[in-house]
Queue: 2 jobs
Job 1
Amino acid sequence: MHSYALVVLTLIPLVASIGVFLLKNEQGRLAKFISLFVSLVVLAYVVVLTVRFDTGATAPRFQYQGSWTWIKGFGVHFALGVDGIALVLVLMAVVLVPAVMLASWTSFDSRSGAEEEPTGRRRSVKNFFALMLLLEFFMIGVFVATDVFLFYVFFEAMLVPMYFIIGSFGGPRRQYAAMKFFLYSLVGGLLMLASVIGLYITTGSQTFAISDLIGKVPEGATQKWLFLGFFIAFAIKAPLVPFHTWLPDAGAEAPAGGAALLVGVLDKVGTFGFLRYCLPLFPQASTYFAPFILILSVIGILYAAFLAIGQRDMKRLVAYTSVAHFGFIGLGIFAFTTQGGTGAVLYMVNHGLSTGALFIVVGLLIARGKSRNVNDYGGAAKVTPILAGLFLLAGLSALALPGMSTFVSEFLVLVGTFTRHKGLAILATTGIVLAAIYVLYLYQRTFQGKLTEKVAKFRDANPREILAVAPLIAIIVFLGVYPKPLLDVINPAVRYTLHDVHQTDPAPKLGPLAGGNK
Amino acid sequence: MSAGTLAASTITTPSVAYHGLMPIFIVLGAALLGVLVEAVVPRRERFNTQVAVTILGLAGALVTVVLLRHTRLATPSPAGNDPSFAGSIAVDGVGLFLQGTILVLAVMATLLVAERTVDAGSPIVASAAVVVGSPTDRALARSKRVQTEVFPLLLFAVAGMMIFPVANNLLLMFVALEVLSLPLYLMAGMSRRKRLLSQEASLKYFLLGAFGSAFFLYGLALLYGYANSVDLAQIFAAQKSSGQSDVLLYLGLGLLLVGLLFKASLAPFHSWTPDVYTGSPTPVAAFMASCTKVAAFGALLRVLYVGFAGTATDWRPIIWAVAIASMVVGAVFGITQTDVKRVLAYSSIAHAGFILVAFVAVSKVSVSSVLFYLLTYGVTTLAAFGLVTLVRDADGEATHLSQWSGLARKSPVLAATMTILLLSMAGIPLTSGFIAKFYVFSAAWHTAGPLVVIALILSAVAAFYYLRIVVLMFFAEPPENAPTVSIPGATSTIALTLGVVVTVALGVFPQPVVDLATKAVSLVAR
């Protein structure tokens, strides 16, 4: 049975994107409305898919599956399907897109409206929105592909719209940042291509379908090499320390909306790749390399947090916080426990929403002050109370305050890690303290303190801007109180994945106090 | 073999399978017709007549290639007891696929050469012999007079290129090499603008090309000494039975390879490429970068896979070294270039290296992947050169990279088209370049895994300069005296559209051509 549900899902943004590209430059307003409408349609569509997703005990791992021969000579299929992990990530992506569109509504309307460079050249509004839709197409595609070759195609092609979003609509050093972003990802991608080819040849299965490749890779040195190809690509994408240096540049130079999608969604492809490809395809190598990756993750958590504290550039700061958060996700994935895995997936969703919100709010602030430098602000809360509130809420969700969904995921990751690696879990926990420092310190320097003359002229958030951010925060709070619906979707998929790596949760060691009554 | 045999026996003519040679004959016939046209047709109508003769000739040959697609033979059959030239020309899958590729690319190149709206007259100088800077020269530069000998020259070159990859006989291969090279040397010197540069390119190409041919000939002689034959099948057989010293064999093969690698512009025999591509009229550079490369790789394929298939372990290290050298030279040196045509030249060197990677695996897949790569690379490169002709300032083409800054604002269509082609060269998915790279590297993975990894890393390096052009076009501010973007005439538009459409189509739906290349894997010896 081939379901067309996901094909339709991917086609909607693609067709709309082409349509918007074909509009005239003067039709920017029309382009905005079409794009927003389409992104909302996609959101509604994914919500329906999520509601109808079977989470029962006997439910198949991949649902809404469809597979059609694409390149027969190479055994490549246009194969789509979602498991719980992919589904929640798609959901997160399509929630972010309309929010980003709303937030960027007037960013490129006029010279004065641009986030920075008030004298900069006028940029094509419709191109921005068309690129957003094109990016949405690739983002959905990369999560729903169940064929390694198809995944690779989406993985690489996704770079192109993001490259143009950074390069055409970004800040003063956009050329450098766009180039750096593209080349880093391309190097990773090409190493992965070597592994993809290797996978195809060594398994000899004449197919790229992920379900046919699981368990086929011979153990030993080959598996380790192939694993490294995938791992480095994903580690650059995610990014894990020490492959992270492109992210602060790209995140800082991209327009705020682009940065929200870049860090919120694109980077998740890396961590998603760990779960979907590295672990199931190369179980032995994953176990072999796990200790190194865990250590890298912890280093990333602490190192990036310290860097974030020291940043004056607001967007760079947010980018560094993300590097720290990706450390947590890496920790959760390679701890090989259900809590850790589930926590990591939930973390991906939450991080996408909270960092997306944070980037958008920072972007709104920058659009008012025309500067990314923290020192140019101060006391803004007095004139822009609503913006300050949104900023604080987004920030608190980034530091995983209890009551926010980020707390749930961070807690799960730490618990999941603790059962196997106590020392690492304890070290990672200090990252939470550092998170509180960088978030609150940023808030304090921008919104509190002495009101400067420039800041006094800021206008508060208008309804459109509130509408862009408030839903994201509402979801974060809702999931913080009641994460069960999402966890129900994620859990079976994580269990399948751990089964592929031949890992089971360690049996709890019951101490004399806890286990006394049995 | 000996002279006595001929004299003693009655002369029996070899039986030639003429139908198998039809494509070559049609092109040669069209070339000769072109020479006649030059003499007979009045000047006013000469240009259009020449274009028509060229296109029709190439198209006719293409049709016969398609009709011959199932033919597998080697011709001529031996005459009497003299087998010297038996099976000199192979009509087989690989040969026909390459001939078809060359013809398609030649049609596109002709359409670019026939462009008359962009530059007054045509991209070809009206009288190549006039001294540069003389009063006559200045007058000619302003006049609309055109020169049409370039079309028959192009046809002769195409004929040579069509024989080159189907020659089973090294002597015939040498003749083909000369037939394809001589017109190219002339055409390189025919640029309408920057004539001194063009003449320098022509001379350089000629001198170095002559050296290359001499090496080829020397290698041929040594191989004859080894195998007592210039026939590839005989040479192959001799490697099993010959009592001659292996030094002759390896020295001969080495020298032969020098000649072939030179034509395919592979490092370390690449140094002419950037200068010649830069100096030549851009449509001619497009022709050289695509068609010559296809022909040269076809010949290389035949020599190595027919003549030396048995000793693959011996020549594989050479291929490794040359492939790595080409990729490194093409990728690294390309970064420092500041001229679009030079960038494309270095890109062509890098791509030659990528193609060579597949040669190490002597297998069916490696042959079909090379065929596929040559087609996609040729189409993309040709279209890229074609686009270069459109960006102009007062001195003709504006090829300095700084002049390409901000081009997207002047002509979004040109910039978008160029971007697609450059992304294809960089091997980004959904373009033909990606599929071709995937094909070639998956063919080589089993035999040469490390080489594939090196190739992939170097393709990331090469991506830098492709992306730099994209960055310049889209993200940079245009300079003060920015060049204009000409609207191409009908012929160029067809060629450029075809180039981009094929580049995208083969990236999204490559299956038909992959099938074609797979079916074409057959090499007929004698």
Job 2
Amino acid sequence: MKFNLQKIARSRKLEYSIFVFILLFLFNIVFPMHDDLPTFIIHEIIVFVAFFILFEYLKDFFTSKMIQPIPLVLNIGILAAAIFLVASVAKYSLTTNSINIETRDFISALFSVLAIFILIGIVTFIFSSLRELFFLRQKKDPSVYMNTMLIFFLFTFFSNLAVKIDSDLDFIKQSFYVVSIILISLNSLRVSWIAFLPKKQKVYLILISVVLIVVFSFNFGVISGKEGFETLVSSFSPGLLTLINLIMLYGVIFSTVVFFTTLFHLPTAEAFDRKSEEVSSLIDLTKLITQVFDFKELAESVTLLTSKICNSDASWLVIKQGDEFELKSVNKIGYLEADELTKFILGQNYDMEEGVTIVSNNALIPFIKNTNSQFNFDSITYSCLMHHEDISGYLFAARTLEIKYDDDDKKAISAFANYAAVALENAKLIEESIEKERMEKELDVAREIQQKILPHQVPEIDDYQISALFIPAFEVGGDYYDFFKLDEDSYAVVVADVSGKGISAAFIMAEVKGIFGSLSKIFSNPKELLVRVNDVLKDTLDRKTFVTSIYYVLNIKTGKLSLARSGHTPALLCSNGVIQKIQPPGIGLGLDYGISFENSIKEMEISLNYGDILILYSDGIPESKNSKLEDFGYERLEKIVASSCQLSANEISNKIMTELTIFSVDNSQHDDITLVILKRINNNN
Amino acid sequence: MSSPELKFPLELSVKSSTDNLSVVRNFIKSTALSLGYSNATVGNIILAVDEACTNIIKHAYKYSPAGDIDIELNLSTNKFIITILNSGIEFDPNLIPEPDIKEYYKQRRIGGLGMYLMKKMMDEVIYSKNKNRNQVKMVKYLP
Amino acid sequence: MADFNVNLRGVGSVSVIDVKGYLDAHTAPELENMFSKLIVDKQFKVVVNFDQLNYISSAGLGVFMAFVEQMRDNQGDIKFSNMNDSVYNIFDLLGFPVLYEFYKDEKEAVNKFSILG
């Protein structure tokens, strides 16, 4: 029957319970007196079944809930008090109204049956609650002990039948009763859940258990006494009286055990609290490791948890940045104070036993003397954060009260520091890799823009050699060059350099190209063109960005060219082996607007003879560095050009690049290199 | 090319003359304004630095105008840090009590208000030694 | 220094001091001299008009602390008027309103003296 019952759904069990209780009620109406043996036996069976089904229902009811021990114990207490109340009321009404139990009338029968139903309900609920506490925090399944006890309860219950048949058989009941008590005592010892309670709840539990002992003892006394209440229940069902008796006894024994166990656990309660705080902080941290990738946020959480973990009033975190330790986050301490304390403590070079140490009040006195009165820490402990055998930072915790840090605290903070180090390192790596990926993406885009902007081939012009060379730097500088055919006789050449690097420089470059492209066809005068370009740029450049440029318009027939410069590196003119710097004044585009820009620009006229070379280049060439960080410089460039006047434009370009590569072989290229060479040749010769 | 952005750390060194208080105030004012503080907060920061320097002139250098006051302004995450260094007489900040205006009135004692104002105006103030010099560090959290 | 200015006016039996500009440790002695002169001249009823004062530091506050008792011992007082919010906040922070009377308007402050005789 029991196994079948377990399979029945909870709602069905409730239906069954109600059904049995109705049956029991009807039975009592029909047979108000059940003194003859058959009705007595049937009645006893119905009573036990009622109790058992209700118990089964409550079992399911509890498993569907999260069990918290303290509320459960409180419930037991309240219900025990309710029994106390019911017993008192019953006793009072029985004695004052002197209802003759032998001659029950219908009303009094109804009254007593209802009172007993309430009693059964309460007792069953208490028993179920005790059962839940019994199962709480058990590692192995102890149901066999509980079931054995239940079976003996059953035996004791029905042993009343034997007494009914022959009062000499009382010893059967007695022996079952004694065994039941032994089982109750054994089962009451299963209170390991007490150890897991926080200190506050333990103190609370002691108080409740005292109350429980008193209430249960009183109830037990009432049940086993010969007063009215006892007679009422006994006349209803002697078995029920025994059962209630046993459960009250269970309550007394259990409460006593709880009281003493809690009392013994109290001294270690604080240590236990800390341990559990430590464990939960570690769990929190593990969660953070997987969820928080933001370094700053993680650092804040680490200090917060550090305070919790070793019961501290303040905590802070320093991380190694280059050669220095930088304060990353503080919890309940000022930034300056934490910073000064860190410097002071790390300056003392304490022995770090297993990466953790405690700084006592005495050691802090010289520091306190030097700083302001806000300082009131009594004991400080700190632990290294390790990363690959290196110290990557320190985690500090401080207490204001006179509770010194002990070895347990040391262990706690050091264990926590180990986890924190991993978490922080992890976050740092993720942040770095995200940043790196972002930069690489940006570089790809910037390179792509640059590729599209620059001309894919140089114009072919009779009597002229043109060579254009562009070498992008890793980071993508802002170099730009272009050729525009203005009309049949004239070409324009521009070399420009946008300040800044990366994607923003690339975008400005694209814009500069558009502006030069469209305006060069309208304004044939270089100075005027630059002024117009500057006007247009006014709306797009922010105050930090500017563009240097050099621009000339060449008449291919005459070899005459007019050139204007806005802050760019000067052009080089090589005529018969003589180098001339072409450096008309002019400030960079975007540095100033309106008339002051226009006034700064001066135009220059040059006449190219056959064999003459005009070289435009970006500052990437003179500013290339060797391993000693020396500049390639203008002089070196001029020398190379002077010595290679006889060569073709392409050959000169190659020569410059070869020399530059040799010079800066050990140093990576930091800026774009642009080199545009124009040579007038006489093809008729 | 001149950039409109300030490059931290910014430094200012003045002699310990009360003449220079206005110089210091202007230095702090321009920097603090560029950091986006409200006018009221800028006023508070200026007052704190003025009080710190006044204390140095009065107590560390005993009104001798030959001493050095070095001010360094720094930015860190969320924080504007002001460090003021002097090589004068060291004074123990712990000895200066919180001011009680009624007590002052009774005792006819003037002074000590400066340190109180500094603490009120700034988020953090700390006194310490730095390479044998006296150092006051103050922090105002960024807006 | 041009940063600070004190000016003395007589309104009936009350001396009104107009302070202007920046009152700090450098300029406070000027105000101190003014008060010393008033003591010599036995002018103990003083109203300080802060209308044009932009800034005050504790050195400036100290001047009022130094002279107020002498004024009061001689049936006079130092009263403040026309203070802007930022300057008042400093006075307030140091608890001055407990010991000094602050008025929105100079006239109000001056009248306070004449009512009391």
